[in-house]
Amino acid sequence: MLRSFLIYLSKAAWAQKLITSWGFAWRTASRFVAGTTLADALRAVRELNAKGINATLDHLGEHTSTPEEAQQAADDIFATLDAIGAEPGLRANISIKLTQIGLGLDESLCAETLERILARAKSAKTFLRVDMEDTPYTDKTINLHYAMREKGYENHGMVIQAYLFRTEADVRRMVQDGVRIRNVKGAYNEPPDKAFPKKADVDANFDLITKILLDAALAQESTLSEDGRIPPIPAIATHDDKRIAFAKSYAEKIGLPKSGLEFQMLYGIRRDLQESLAKDGYPVRVYVPFGTHWYPYFMRRLAERPANIWFFISNLFRG
Known about the structure:
By secondary structure, the protein is an alpha/beta fold. It has one domain: Alpha-Beta Barrel (TIM Barrel), CATH 3.20.20.220. 51% of the residues lie in helices and 13% in strands. The chain is built from 13 helices and 8 strands. The protein has an 8-stranded parallel barrel, surrounded by 6 helices. Helix 10 (241-254) links the parallel strand 6 (234-237) and strand 7 (262-266). Helix 6 packs across helix 7. The longest helix has 22 residues, at 199-220.
């Protein structure tokens, strides 16, 4: 119930206007958001790189409402890619949401913009991860991914959500094509005919998807690139110790080298675990969000873990 309410608030314009006016809201959000500028984000990436951790930069934004907003979002993404390209030693790639560049407005506009972004990513010698949003956009996102592959762009990968019933079939299709996949549990409020309602079922499906991805990485000899920018096929995105333990155990069982998988985590969450896995020789990538449009992202982080809500409340009483 609380999770559903917080996800509702993440999309409510009135709530965004109210909460972002509170100074302590940004103080809390800054635990999970690297800053409001590209310079802030690059500084965070360098700090992570110094600890042996790779990064994915995400200039926050979603559900643009005009073509002009979509173009501004694209320009921000271009600036991020140019910054990565200008710093060859930076172990970073980028992540975007397609509604950020107009998927909810005009699919042809979104496709044209995505192609331009992929071309710029290619010039910057880096990789683009397309985030998965809620189910009204699932088929559209997958279709655009394959449309770009048909145009010769293979420098991008997908995110799938383990809480959806359809995900196993989607993943089995994509791994046959060598698609690099980020496995997440899912952060939206989906209807019961589309998603597992129970956490135990989501966890079980997450482990099944992990197994499929690790098998594909072994079969296709997929490993992390030397410059840290191109991930292997499996990106296991979780802070759940049991899910991580399963991935490590299964990879060892089938003989997949550590470089054949990547653990991904969110900025500001489980830093201890991030550093521990990196010290053990596993590729670790931290998702580094930044920008002024931090509110929806922040509310979904509150919805995911009760501990995040208490952190927010503690800042409320600190004023």
